[in-house]
Amino acid sequence: MSFLANRLQRIKPSPTIAMTTRAGQLRQEGRDIIGLSAGEPDFDTPEHIREAAKQAIDAGHTRYTPVDGTPSLKQAISQKFQRENGLDYAVSQITVGTGGKQILFNALMATLDEGDEVIIPSPYWVSYPDMVLLAGGQPVVVECGIESGFRLTAEKLEAAITPRTKWIILNSPSNPSGAGYGRDQMRALTDVLLRHPQVWILADDIYEHLVFDDFQFVTPAQVEPRLKDRVLTMNGVSKAYAMTGWRIGYGAGPEHLIKAMGKLQSQSTSNPCSISQYAAEAALTGPQDYIRDSRRAFQRRRDLVVAGLNECPGIECPTPQGAFYVYPSIRELIGKTSPDGTLIDSDEAFANALLDEKGVAVVFGAAFGLSPHFRISYATSDAQLTEAVARIKAFCQGCT
Q1: pTM score, two decimals?
Q2: Of 285, 307, 327, which residue sits at a domain end?
Q3: At the N or C end, where does the chain have fewer CB atoms within 10 A?
Q4: Helix H segments across 29-177?
């Protein structure tokens, strides 16, 4: 009898964390490494948010809070949904967790029985399928390639739905592709979902505020109010306010689902950090200038990276609508040999050779369910990005 639970065999460690860890190890060995694998803003948390956390400590807010969030933070979240998305949620319909990942995990663990299906468009965030598997569900991956702008179409959604489908996960703008669903594109999906009342929608809106050009963010319950009673809308402060380490995510949905998620959280992590909750409240209710400024910086970086990668032989890089990632194709490089003689027979081989030979850490596309691609996070300085693109170009030019 194995000591470790069989359920652990269903999942694998996060490839993004693995690549970031390997890059860190090479850096400790003295290598000049540019890390583009971690999805984390490189800006400091805004000062007024940090001050709110300090004030919370001084005021003695260092004890347990209600399991799934303080009433005042939930009220701030309710106001955010009304102000920014036109959605009305009572405090009893809101839950707060230790990061957006816990909100997703709680929802899936609280609702999936063995064999229940969850539709996941690929490329997808690496954790979606593993969380579904851990909860006993079955991921149904629907490939959404570069030809469709990395977006799920109504036809593909209709074809993927079965009597066992319980959820679909929609992430817009997307990690890893940066692709976003405009109102008409989202409406096409919600029209399909109206015909299948057993299917719930898990909307991962964590990159809501990181959108570029004239793209207008929308969320499913906003586009189709008739679906609101079977939508869980997840968001958080990590990306929008450079608060990844504060670990605060939140979700809003039907009260019976929110209660079930709270029940699960009460027997796992219990409440999120009290100090972080006060900081998140300040983020949602305070000045929003940071969002505008960071969006401008990320758009500049996006344009730098897209232009540079499209000058690299064998790389095709679409322009994303949001987030801080690009997801270039390396189809023309498959089968070639790297400058130091490595056969590039997959996007994983490409990523490993690029790190070994040029010191640039990216994440291979197979980790996100769609090859042959790789993901770059451009949440780092212009200077680092310029140097990284130059190294990638030199790598590609040396492939034969």
Answers
A1: 0.96
A2: 285
A3: N
A4: 47-58, 71-85, 100-111, 127-134, 154-160
